[in-house]
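From the methods appendix. Each design record in this collection lists the discretized structure first, followed by the designed amino acid sequence. Records were kept in a plain field format so they could be parsed without special tools. The example shown here is representative of the layout used throughout.

RECORD:
C-ALPHA CELLS (198 positions):
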C-alpha cells in the first residue's frame, strides 16, 4: 500500500522524508479547533484521526498518516501563535517553566477503514528568557506557524534547558518511532522497502 501524509506542514513532510520511502502529501482541510470541554489529549488524537480520514475518498486503498500537536501550560492549551506579539507572549510565559507538548499520530487504512492512534508527550524545560533574547530569537527564525513559538530542529533549541520524551521527533511534529511501529502493524515495514536515494 502507498503512503499519504495528510498535512500541508513542511516540517512534517521533512520528518517523513527521513524514512526514505515514497509518499504523497495532501492538506486535509478540516476544522482544527478544539471542542468545548475537550481535554487536550482528546483534541490532538481526534484531529490526527480526522485529518487522516478526511482523505479516504481521494486515496481509497492507502495508508494515510494524520498528526497534530499542541502545548499545555498553566491549565490551558497553546497552539500556533500566528503573529509576533502572540509568540512573544507565549515564550515570555514559558520562561523558567516546564511545558508539555502533546503530539498525536494516526495511521488510517482506507481500504479496511481501520486505524491505529498514539499520543506522545514531551516535556520541555525552558531557560530563563528575557524579552530582548526572545525578540532576537523571533526575528531570526519567525516560528509563527509552530505550536509553542519555536522550531526545535533549528535555533529554538537554544531556548531549552532540558527535553524529556520517548521520541525525539515528536516535538518537531511527527513521532517517527511511534509511526514506524504503527506502519509495521499494517504490514508496512520501513526497512524492508526499497529506499529512495539521498
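DESIGN:
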Amino acid at each position: 500500500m502507498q503512503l499519504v501524509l495528510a498535512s500541508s506542514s513542511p516540517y512534517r513532510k521533512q520528518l517523513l522524508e527521513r524514512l526514505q520511502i515514497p509518499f504523497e502529501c495532501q492538506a486535509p482541510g478540516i476544522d482544527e479547533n478544539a471542542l468545548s470541554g475537550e481535554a487536550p489529549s482528546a483534541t490532538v488524537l481526534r484531529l490526527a484521526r480526522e485529518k487522516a480520514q478526511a482523505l479516504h475518498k481521494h486515496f481509497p486503498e492507502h495508508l494515510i498518516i494524520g498528526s497534530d500537536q499542541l502545548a499545555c501550560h498553566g491549565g490551558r492549551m497553546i497552539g500556533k501563535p500566528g503573529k509576533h506579539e502572540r509568540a512573544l507572549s507565549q515564550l515570555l510565559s514559558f520562561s523558567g517553566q516546564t511545558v508539555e507538548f502533546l503530539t498525536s499520530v494516526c495511521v488510517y487504512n482506507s481500504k479496511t477503514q481501520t486505524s491505529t492512534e498514539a499520543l506522545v508527550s514531551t516535556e520541555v524545560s525552558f531557560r530563563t528568557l528575557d524579552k530582548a533574547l526572545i525578540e532576537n530569537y523571533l526575528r531570526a527564525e519567525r516560528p509563527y506557524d509552530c505550536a509553542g513559538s519555536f522550531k526545535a530542529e533549528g535555533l529554538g533549541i537554544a531556548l531549552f534547558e532540558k527535553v524529556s520524551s520517548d521520541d525525539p521527533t515528536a516535538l518537531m511534529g511527527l513521532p517517527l518511532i511511534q509511526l514506524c511501529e504503527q506502519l509495521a502493524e499494517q504490514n508496512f515495514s520501513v526497512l524492508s522497502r526499497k529506499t529512495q536515494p539521498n
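APPENDIX NOTE: The beta strands are 2-5, 23-25, 62-73, 76-78, 98-109, 114-126, 160-165.
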